[in-house]
Amino acid sequence: MFGLVNSLAEQGLLSDEEEAFRRENNAWYEANFTDPTTVDPDVHRRDVNPMAAA
User: Fold this and answer.
1) Is residue 43 within 8 Å of 37, Cβ to Cβ?
2) What is the pTM of this model?
3) What's the whole-number mean pLDDT along residues 17-21?
């Protein structure tokens, strides 16, 4: 879900309201949950953890 929304944002395909919603919610998640890559930078490397999903 985050990947899809962030990809749409990078392509400029979100309305101003959608972009504000995305930024607000991304900030909330960053403040309330640990980013796994800050604990283990290799967690999403396919050659290290081929089945990793977030």
Assistant:
1) yes
2) 0.67
3) 96
